[in-house]
From TrEMBL:
GO terms for cellular component: chloroplast. Pfam families: Abhydrolase_6. PANTHER family: ALPHA/BETA-HYDROLASES SUPERFAMILY PROTEIN (PTHR46438), ALPHA_BETA-HYDROLASES SUPERFAMILY PROTEIN (PTHR46438:SF2). It comes from Kingdonia uniflora. Residues 104-355 form the AB hydrolase-1 domain. This is AB hydrolase-1 domain-containing protein.
């Protein structure tokens, strides 16, 4: 696939939500400058960022604001009991399956769930067989008390493709889900025929692609400093987890990553408090923040992209205060078999401007000339 890059302009729906019409870019840039201050503050607060960095799922009853957003957009019906469940390594994994055709697997970001693809699943299912899966520890999947690591979710997606999808597929991921899609595709090789990244997590390492060396712990660090640090972390993170569940705080943080915050509604806010009410949610949050976040530098984009062999789509919200367009440009330069589509949106373009994200995905999928007769995994 040849490298391509283009920008999608706001549709009539987006212009309706923005009464300034042709001044869309000016307004977006001004909003971005104001919200970037929030983004800088949040980058210093990894604990709070961990709850909503990648957006959230959908739950609750539609409000009047929801009705405005739903105009012209079909939305995945919310089911409090969930859709389908698969047992993986003794844990209950939640997923959605809709449509017929070539399979696509949607992978949510940190703190989200399958319902964050509320406006994407119905549209994509008109032409494709769409799966959306809750990563272990998130959404309606079990809040397992394990040592979380990026490879846990990679293993989950690899097994999901082999056991549930059971045929070559396309992986699509936002934020943490983007990096999970990459590492999974690198393992699945020919069983993944394309990957789409929406403001993906992950970072480049040194020139060799390896993470920086970490010195060994001293005896003092291991037996005195580390235990004291863990007690302190539990106290602080316990308070932050409680604070992060408060609706007002959730809404404030979400508005910092949605440039057009029209979709930051009660429907969205309530979706965070539901999974967070699980008895194990606090402990999972602690483990994610102290173990996964601190260990994520072990895996670099260099090493993963070097193993990738399929076409790559970079569908990027250019006004994201956390993962800006510079990363998309770097990925494109490192991996030539890529296409870049820029959207005037924040960290979650698939939910902020779903009509534009859906169009970009369908256009890219159509260009791949997918063969529905490909053999099963």
């Amino acid at each position: 696939m040849s490298i391509s890059s283009n920008t999608i302009s706001p549709s009539p729906r987006t212009k309706f939500l923005n009464p300034f019409g042709h001044n869309q870019n000016i307004v977006s840039n001004r909003s971005y400058q104001q919200k970037n201050k929030w983004g800088m503050m949040l980058r210093r607060d990894l604990a709070l960022k961990g709850v909503v960095a990648a957006g959230v799922s959908v739950i609750g009853s539609p409000s009047s604001a929801d009705a405005v957003q739903a105009v012209g957009m079909e939305r995945l019906p919310f089911k409090p009991e969930g859709y389908n469940f698969w047992t993986w390594r003794g844990h209950k994994i939640h997923y959605v399956e809709q449509g017929e055709g070539f399979p696509i697997v949607l992978i949510h970001g940190f703190g989200a769930s399958v319902f964050h693809w509320r406006y994407n699943i119905p549209e994509l299912a008109k032409k494709y067989k769409v799966y959306a899966v809750d990563l272990l520890g998130f959404g309606w999947s079990d809040k397992a008390l394990i040592d979380y690591d990026a490879m846990i979710w990679k293993d989950q997606i690899v097994d999901f493709v082999k056991e549930i999808v059971n045929e070559p597929t396309i992986l699509v991921g936002n934020s943490l889900g983007g990096f999970t899609a990459l590492v999974s595709a690198a393992d699945l090789q020919n069983n993944v025929v394309g990957v789409a990244l929406l403001n993906s997590a992950g970072q480049f390492g040194n020139r060799s692609g390896e993470p920086e060396n970490i010195s060994e712990e001293s005896v003092l660090e291991k037996f005195l400093i580390k235990p004291v640090k863990e007690v302190f972390q539990r106290i602080v993170l316990g308070f932050l987890f409680w604070q992060a569940k408060q609706p007002a705080r959730i809404k404030s943080v979400l508005k910092s990553v949605y440039v057009d915050d029209s979709n930051v509604d009660d429907y969205l806010v309530e979706s965070i408090t539901s999974p967070a009410s699980d008895p194990n949610a606090g402990e999972v949050y602690y483990r994610l923040m102290t173990r996964f976040i601190s260990n994520q530098t072990k895996y670099t984009l260099n090493s993963v992209l070097a193993r990738l062999s399929c076409p790559l789509l970079l569908l990027w919200g250019d006004l994201d205060p956390w993962v800006g367009p510079a990363k998309a440009k770097s990925i494109k330069e490192f991996y030539p078999n890529s296409s870049l589509v820029n959207l005037q949106a924040g960290h979650c373009p698939h939910d902020e401007v779903p009509e534009l994200a859906n169009k970009a995905l369908v256009d890219w999928l159509s260009s791949l000339k997918l063969d529905p007769t490909i053999q099963t995994v």
